[in-house]
Design goal:
Helices cover 37% and strands 17% of the residues. With 295 residues, the chain is of the alpha/beta class. It has a single domain (53-294), classed as Alpha/Beta hydrolase fold, catalytic domain (Rossmann fold). The protein has an 8-stranded mixed beta sheet with strand order 1-2-4-3-5-6-7-8, with helices on both faces. The chain is globular. The protein starts with a helix and ends with a helix.
Length: 295
């Protein structure tokens, strides 16, 4: 039981750090025309690998792009991949064009050559959006670490990112929260949670992504919905659990500073994996934000 609790805590706070074979459109005689390239981006459905900044990145897209509607892009949590979000993507694609991708070091994408930052992982995200969204507006829907990346990316890309759905996103000050909730003198499971998470946030994770604390920056008038878990599973960690749970909840509220159009929702029956445990809550949030983004 203790091992299970510790694993859940590490999964959540470090974003779970520890796919389909259809081809894209064929080239034709018109592929030098910008309109045709944008049309290819809008029509691509299935699984495909793109060469981005010299690395192979796996992407999956489904659903059709309707005029005026945004492309929904899913960002998986740490230690996961696009395959984890496949069922969620399929549900959303009934009314949206939806794409997901494996970041470097995740799923079937290439591994990074060295340490990554929010800037370098953001560069890959920009490349993905160029391939699958063209000039269409985008809604980023990120889980855990994917939510953290989305929230760091959006303020610098307001012309493109018109909506954010953060599903139990890793808080912006998780390092400080961790150190405050679990003192260095802690013993047992709590000490292990502290040690593992601090290492992961410093870049000891499959994506080699360092995730320093930072202020929540404004994403302008972007539509934002923050969804937090309702089952207080972090509270089960001996001694420090309740403080971690409080810090996580406070961290979700901090994300509301992204925009004056932010909303906080609680998935009452869900733990960390909201899009799996209570997908209807996540689907409804994406629908609301997509409608606002289209307006």
């Amino acid at each position: 039981m203790t091992r299970k609790i510790r694993k859940l805590a590490v999964t959540a706070m470090c974003c779970a750090v520890a796919a389909a074979g259809l081809s894209g459109c064929e080239d034709d005689d018109m592929n030098s025309f910008p309109f045709d390239e944008k049309q290819k981006a809008a029509d691509f459905v299935g699984a495909k690998k793109f060469d981005l900044d010299g690395k192979s990145v796996s992407v999956s897209c489904s659903g059709k792009l309707a005029a005026g509607k945004p492309v929904v892009v899913l960002l998986h949590g740490g230690g996961d991949g696009l395959s984890k979000m496949a069922a969620f993507q399929k549900t959303l694609s009934g009314k949206n064009r939806v794409c997901s991708y494996d970041r470097l070091g995740a799923g079937t994408s290439d591994k990074p050559d060295g340490p990554q930052s929010f800037t370098s992982t953001g560069k890959i995200l920009t490349g993905v959006l160029d391939e699958i969204a063209g000039d269409a507006p985008v809604v980023l829907a990120g889980h855990s670490m994917g939510g953290l990346i989305a929230a760091r990316y959006a303020p610098d890309h307001q012309k493109r990112v018109k909506g954010l759905v953060l599903m139990d996103a890793t808080p912006s000050t998780m390092l400080a929260d961790m150190e405050q909730a679990i003192p260095a003198s802690a013993k047992g499971p709590a000490a292990q949670v502290r040690e593992q998470n601090l290492a992961i946030f410093q870049g000891q994770n499959p994506e080699k992504l360092a995730m320093p604390d930072g202020k929540v920056r404004s994403a302008g008038n972007t539509a934002v919905e923050v969804i937090k878990h309702g089952k207080p599973y972090l509270a089960a960690i001996p001694e420090s659990g309740p403080r971690l749970e409080q810090a996580w909840t406070a961290g979700q509220r901090k994300w509301l500073a992204l925009s004056g159009r932010s909303k906080l929702t609680t998935a009452e029956k869900s733990g960390h994996y909201i899009y799996l445990e209570q997908p209807d809550v996540a689907v409804q949030a994406v629908a609301r934000v997509s409608t606002q983004a289209a307006g």
